[in-house]
Specification:
Number of domains: 2
Strand content: 5-15%
Length: 270
């Protein structure tokens, strides 16, 4: 019953809120005019597969990223085989920290569908307000979450080990990888003032996943590393504002007899 509540009611509630906001925005426009966010979404969805592949390659073909992931993978193997995972699980069995509302809240906050729904809402509101910067940031967050989700799901299917409480597909933790992706993207876009609280919340989610027996310590270690790598790489790549596929960059012309000129320019690489 608890699982049904987590994966059913809250997800439907968030999606319904997203639809409601979009509907309200549409009603404020002329009925003959197409929704701004819908037109924007059509254009972005058309280029999403290419962007997903390019961002995936840029993330996992980097030597430093692969080194971090291999080290985290090696640590996961050691933790699971030398008994560290079992010791951590036994500790949390004796000393639960989260119960009731706190437990449920952290589960929902760290749930990947929650992240997708919140990002979709961010995108819709930004597109309707013609806020190009935040629309692009929301699209980048969606791409990063998709890359993390695809890799996490693939690794879960390949590894297919059980959790401390007997559930399948333990490694890596999807809640942890998704939460750290969100924190990393926010840190890249807004700096430590937003990044530090986001990382703290992601860490609480990771702690909760071990505290309740939903994941081993090794699941959390690799999930956090994966989210950090994907989030920072993709957000760092797309940290510049883009308009219709063109990167917006500052423009400063060389001084002439008529004076210097400053402004912005649109750049596209072929």
């Amino acid at each position: 019953m608890i699982i049904c509540c987590r994966n059913g009611f809250w997800f439907r509630f968030i999606c319904a809120s997203l639809v409601l906001v979009a509907g309200c925005a549409n009603q404020s426009e002329n009925t003959s005019k197409k929704s701004l966010w819908l037109e924007s979404a059509k254009a972005d969805l058309a280029c999403f597969p290419d962007r997903f592949l390019e961002d995936s390659k840029d993330t996992f073909l980097r030597a430093d990223n692969m080194t971090a992931l291999l080290l985290a993978g090696g640590a996961s193997i050691i933790m699971h085989n030398d008994g560290a995972d079992k010791n951590i699980a036994e500790h949390f069995t004796r000393h639960h920290a989260f119960h009731g509302f706190t437990d449920e809240s952290l589960y929902i906050i760290g749930d990947p569908p929650t992240h997708y729904a919140a990002t979709g809402l961010w995108y819709v509101i930004s597109a309707e307000n013609q806020d190009e910067l935040n629309k692009q940031r929301a699209f980048t967050m969606m791409t990063a979450l998709s890359v993390t989700g695809a890799v996490t799901t693939g690794l879960k299917a390949i590894r297919d080990n059980g959790t401390p409480n007997g559930q399948p597909w333990a490694w890596p933790s999807g809640h942890t990888s998704s939460s750290f992706t969100v924190a990393s993207v926010l840190d890249e876009f807004y700096g430590p003032k937003v990044g530090i609280p986001a990382y703290a919340l992601a860490s609480l989610v990771a702690y909760r996943m071990m505290d309740t027996g939903d994941h081993w310590g090794s699941d959390v270690v690799f999930g956090a590393t994966l989210g950090w790598v994907v989030g920072h790489t993709i957000a760092g790549k797309h940290n510049n504002l883009e308009v219709a596929g063109f990167e917006v960059v500052p423009y400063v012309a060389a001084p002439t007899s008529r004076g210097a000129a400053t402004g912005i320019s649109l750049v596209k690489y072929f």
